[in-house]
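If your schedule permits, I should be very grateful for your opinion on a structural question. I would ask you to consider whether the tokens describe a fold that such a sequence might reasonably adopt. Thank you for your consideration; the sequence and its tokens are set out here.
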Amino acid sequence: MDAADTPVPHHETPVLGNPDLPPEGEANTVDHPRSTVMTGPRNPVIESQFPNQIDPPRTDISTQAFFWSSFNISPRRVQQGGWAREITKQDFAISDEIAGVNMYLEAGGIRELHWHQTAEWAVMTRGKCRVTTISRNGVPSVEDVEEGDLWFFPAGTPHSLQGLGPDGAEFVLAFDDGDQSESNTLLLTDWFAHTPPDVLAKNFGVAQEVFRDIPLHNLWIFSGDEPGDLAADQAAAGVEWGSAEPIIFRLSRSTPLHKNSGGSIQIADSTNFPLSNTVAAALVTVEPGSMRELHWHPNADEWQYYLRGSARMTVFNTGPHANTTDFRAGDVGVVKKNFGHYIENTGDDVLQFLEVFKTDRYEEISLANWLSHVPPSLVTAHLNIDEATLATFPRGAQGITPLR
């Protein structure tokens, strides 16, 4: 037998950062280089985006459901007036609680009047948008939103969206059902075109001829004139101040739940945005050199949307399973309920991303907070770390690790 073919023994003593037998990771194949040969077809462009999958940390073990996707690989549906692309459960199997849509409307571009069978949560990422709705008790709302603002429409709430100047509007929608598609909505034009003309006439108290020029196909997204004065539109829609529960929330202007030298976490859920009773969210900002601390969420899966910067995340699951992958702007991640994880800023720029949950209330368990509220002798018995050192660990949840 050739020396290079001699099996590598698996009786080494596990060490910190390399805990498994048999050992995993390329670092354990230095004396057996054949183990890492990749001779099949390869896509170096894709490989370059995932260094922690090609050469994972030695602490990774086994495999689990892939928790990365991206709007960057999703087909765009483009029409005059704007475009949209989506990630649903059909595209991203692990995302069964949330479906996501990235949409752009040019200045004046209209997402036609419609409603959904699910709730719609959204965050503005660029530009400005005019939003119209009517509540379940018949109260209208017309509002303008800009970067960092949210809106929330309960299931069945009719609404429209229109881009404002000078740059239109780009935003991300999250539906509280992984199967929901933006191409499967209840559209005003579809309903009119598929209702007998005599019924339309009877319903609105006019002659049938009034409807002879209605579209016979849906519009979905189309070009329109840029909206005029907000107050004039509110008056025309019959908006009465103080009569409607707010449908928008200024997330980026809200007081952070956590803030330190490493970054901040700003929360929007039913405690500060009462209408949003099926979706909770966090806007997370992480400075270079810092990270979202080790934690988990006990009440819902976490759907992530990366706004800027670069990151890596390891997800820890029963088994054990621990896998690491990389994220950049436009990417989407999912962490299942109760799975431990962290998100580390791996770049020189600020990392910013959204955490979205199908629940009415934001909840998290911080690993550091937990251990700081367990008798030190018990933690020492588990981890072989002396009590004096444990006393220097953070007390309480940090959210983001501070810069040191």
The longest helix spans residues 197-204.
